Amino acid sequence: MKISVIVPAYNEEKLLGASLAEIKLAAHSLAVHGWEFELVVCDNNSTDRTAEIARTAGAQVVFEPVNQIGRARNCGAQAATGDWLVFVDADTHPSAELFADVAEKIASGQIMAGGSTIRLDEKIFSAAVITELWNYASRFKKLMAGSFIFVEAAAFRKIGGFNHEFFAAEELDLSVRLKKLAQQQGKKICILHRHPIKTSARKVRLYSPREMGGFFLRSLFSPRKTMRNREAAYMWYDGRR
After folding, report:
1. Domains of the chain (ranges plus CATH)?
2. From edge to edge, which strands make up the β-sheet containing 36-43?
3. Element (H, E) at 5
4. CA 91 – CA 10 distance, rounded (Å)
5. CA proximity to 116, closest of 133, 101, 106
6. Which DSSP state fits 57?
7. CA 233 to CA 2: how far, in whole Å?
8. Could you please report the per-residue DSSP string of 116-147?
9. pLDDT digits over 10-50, tens only?
10. CB 114 within 8 Å of CB 175
C-alpha cells in the first residue's frame, strides 16, 4: 500500500515549512502498517519561496500555472503514485493520531473516502461557533472539509477529481459525487472526529467581518454564481497571507 499526501500551495512561504514537517511526523503512523509514503506539493503559480521550501522538505514539487485550488489539487494527484490520496492544505497540521485513524479506515476495506472535523489554531469566539456548526453539518451530511481529505485514488480518478468550474466549495462538490459512487460500490464516506485536523484561523484575521459576511451572504443567496467566480471567491485568490 502506498499513500500520497498532496499539498496545494500558493504563496505559502510563511506556513508551508511547519505544515510539511507536521505531515512528515504524522506519516510515521503509516509505517506501522508497512505502507509507503510520498509527499507531493503543487506550487500553484507562487511568486515567493514556496517551491524552494517544499523541495528543501523533501517533497516532490509540481507546478500548476492557473491559480485555482481545484486545479492545484488535481495537478498534485496526477503526479501522485499512491493507492490512496490524502489532500492537506498548506496551513493545516494533521496529527499522528489522525493519520492512524485514516490508516484504520483504509485497512477496513469499507471506506472509499473521508475527511475530518476541524479545529482552529487560535481561539476566536465567532470563528469557533462557525467551526462547530460546520463540524456538525460535516458529520451529519458526510461533507469533507478541503483542509483534509483522504480518498481511494481509483475512485478519485473515476469521477474526474475536483471540478474546475469551482473556485470555492470544490470539496463539497467532490463530496457529493464521491457519495454517489460509494453507494453504487457498497462503500462509505466517513468523517473522523476523535482527532480533529488543526488548521489556520488566518482568514478571520486577514478579512474584516464585513468582507467575510458579504461573501457568505452571496454564497447563501447565489451559490452557483459565487462559487464559480474567481472575483467573488476573493478570500482564496487575492494573495493576502
Report:
1. 2-201 (3.90.550.10)
2. 60-63, 36-43, 2-9, 84-88, 148-152, 111-120, 188-199, 92-93
3. strand 2-9
4. 11
5. 101
6. T
7. 34
8. EEEEESS--HHHHHHHHHHHHHHHHHT---TT
9. 999 999 999 999 999 999 999 889 999 999 999 999 999 99
10. no
Helix (H, G, I), strand (E, B) or coil at 193: strand
Taking the C-alpha atoms of residue 162 and residue 224, their distance in angstroms, rounded to an integer, is 16
- Between CA 4 and CA 202 the distance in angstroms is 27
pTM value? 0.96
Q: Over the stretch 199-209, which tens digit does the pLDDT of each residue have?
A: 999 998 899 88
Report which residue type is found at 28: H
pLDDT at 73 over 90: yes
Sign of CA dihedral 169, 173, 174, 179: positive
What does each C-alpha distance from 162 to 12, 73, 165, 174 come to in angstroms?
Answer: 21, 8, 9, 6
Binned at pLDDT 50, 70 and 90, residue 169 comes out as: very high
Reported as a pLDDT band with limits 50, 70 and 90, residue 77 is very high
pLDDT value of position 180: 98
